[in-house]
TrEMBL record:
Protein name: dTTP/UTP pyrophosphatase
Native source organism of the sequence: Ruminococcus hominis
Record key words, sorted: Cytoplasm, Hydrolase, Nucleotide metabolism
Function: Nucleoside triphosphate pyrophosphatase that hydrolyzes dTTP and UTP. May have a dual role in cell division arrest and in preventing the incorporation of modified nucleotides into cellular nucleic acids.
Gene3D superfamilies, alphabetized: 3.90.950.10
Family to which the UniProt record says this protein belongs: Belongs to the Maf family. YhdE subfamily.
């Protein structure tokens, strides 16, 4: 059942995973994306993901305002996911060699996945309130041989994903356990999003 929202909800993301996750909980929403560059200044993972999530939501809101003249009674949602291993931030790999390097470092060890969520909540007056949050999940990965890593890269799964893996795909074979929200690893802590929308009476 699709929940009829009181406010218009706009997901500012090109990620197919985020779209699926929001659909999964039955929220009615539209997708708008912006291809503006994403840059961050912070060095702390919880801050980086919130900064980037807010930038994504802000860019989409700005383009919405340009296109439609104003933004009222709307919630624009942005999100960003990074993997952190040994205090190093891993985004999407730029090539297969980097994917190999990332996966080699994650194999047989524990890392953290952080997803930042930013919600720009526009009222009737067109004024926006910002809500930002960072969710952390601990992921424990089994040992992997170099051949297993190479085969996984050959599957094509790693290249558009932070940390070069997708927990929801073939990489499931190497997940020992997680602590925290599974959906956060896939790219959107949907329970957090739903609970916020509920609290906002959206
Ligand atoms: C760790 C992990 C990440 N991912 C994905 C989620 C995100 O799509 C991607 C991280 O990249 P992001 O830069 O967070 O998002 P994106 O560029 O895909 O989409 P947009 O900026 O338009 O919202 O990695 C998985 O699908 N599974 C996983 O297990």
């Amino acid at each position: 059942m699709i929940k009829q929202n009181k406010k218009r909800i706009v997901l500012g993301s090109a990620s197919p995973r985020r779209k699926e996750l929001l659909e999964q909980i039955g929220i009615e929403f539209e997708i708008k994306t912006s291809d503006k560059e994403e840059i961050y200044e912070s060095t702390i993972p919880t801050e980086i993901v919130q900064e980037l999530a807010l930038m994504k939501a802000g860019n989409v809101a700005m383009e919405l305002e340009e296109a439609e003249g104003n933004v009222i009674d709307t919630i624009v949602i942005g999100a960003d996911t990074v993997v952190v291993h040994d205090n190093k931030i891993l985004g999407k790999p730029s090539d297969e060699a980097e994917a190999f390097h990332m996966l080699k470092s994650l194999a047989g060890d524990t890392h953290q996945v952080y997803t930042g969520v930013a919600m720009l909540v526009y009222g009737e007056d067109g004024e926006a309130k910002e809500i930002c949050h960072a969710e952390r999940t601990e992921v424990f990965v089994h040992e992997m041989s170099d051949e297993e890593i190479r085969n996984y890269i050959a599957s094509g799964e790693p290249m558009d994903k932070a940390g070069a893996y997708g927990i929801q795909g073939k990489f499931a074979a190497y997940i020992d356990k997680i602590e925290g929200d599974y959906y956060n690893v896939v790219g959107l802590p949907v329970a957090y999003v739903y609970q916020q929308l509920k609290a906002l009476d959206a």
